[in-house]
Amino acid sequence: xxxxxxxxxxxxxxxxxxxxxxxxxxxxxxxxxxxxxxxxxxxxxxxxxxxxxxxxxxxxxxxxxxxxxxxxxxxxxxxxxxxxxxxxxxxxxxxxxxxxxxxxxxxxxxxxxxxxxxxxxxxxxxxxxxxxxxxxxxxxxxxxxxxxxxxxxxxxxxxxxxxxxxxxxxxxxxxxxxxxxxxxxxxxxxxxxxxxxxxxxxxxxxxxxxxxxxxxxxxxxxxxxxxxxxxxxxxxxxxxxxxxxxxxxxxxxxxxxxxxxxxxxxxxxxxxxxx
Length: 275
Ligand code: C2E
Ligand code: CA
Ligand code: CA
Ligand code: CA
Fold this sequence. Notes:
Helix content: 40-55%
Largest sheet: 8 strands, mixed, barrel
Strand content: 15-25%
Distance between the termini: 71 Å
Structural class: alpha/beta
Strand order of the largest sheet: 1-2-4-5-6-7-8-9
Bound molecules: ligand C2E, calcium ion
Radius of gyration: 20 Å
Number of helices: 12
Number of strands: 9
């Protein structure tokens, strides 16, 4: 038995080493990938219910590597956070999204607003708000057009991240609380943070057409948002039935495959649609 346990123990350590090794490799490759221009952004529409007219877009980062193929942001963003590359990658994302928005604006096809995801580490980084102000000035984008999407966990610790949120608001930038309802202190945060948009997590949207806990929570969250004068966006809407039910219980904003998948910028401009 001792021998078997010993074997299992060694195997377990081996897995850990493999995982640590893979993480280190991925971290190093991300660095190279940024310099090699392997990242790009896609944009997903956020629509108004019930008609589905586009009112905003959310930018989402994509990484295509010749050897690995596509790697999802759920995989590489946490690694970039741990290595610190997220600060530089995040700056690239912000600048690229702002440049794209400025181009849409010049072409007369800009949606009302555009969202950029900002991770915890980026938000707490000294100089982040100055960077946002500089990139907006450099690209000529009005601050009120930008929505910075932050997760509850990013602002949970308070301190630098909360200060950054306040300063961004003073700048005129809007703040959206992402994955709302999945964190530890969703409602508590609303008492102190100058948030204007709640992005209601897709886990509550998924089962909204069935009587049950998720539908009750989705209903409660829209009531909280309306009561506080906030905008709630239902995330991950995949069917017409979900959209209809969300509208019925009071949602006026939605995002999801039913309305549009994340797509390259060129495909979303009016010129391309007309062509
Ligand atoms: P998120 O900010 O909650 O983004 C929404 C995710 O849901 C996106 O996944 C999007 O493609 C996906 N999605 C949209 N509609 C539907 C739907 O109808 N059904 C389903 N099942 N999924 C839908 P994605 O692009 O893989 O991004 C995953 C997460 O990675 C994001 O979650 C965000 O936390 C992070 N992320 C993505 N882009 C960036 C970025 O530029 N910067 C940072 N810091 N994080 C990012
Ligand atoms: Ca988001
Ligand atoms: Ca989300
Ligand atoms: Ca998410």
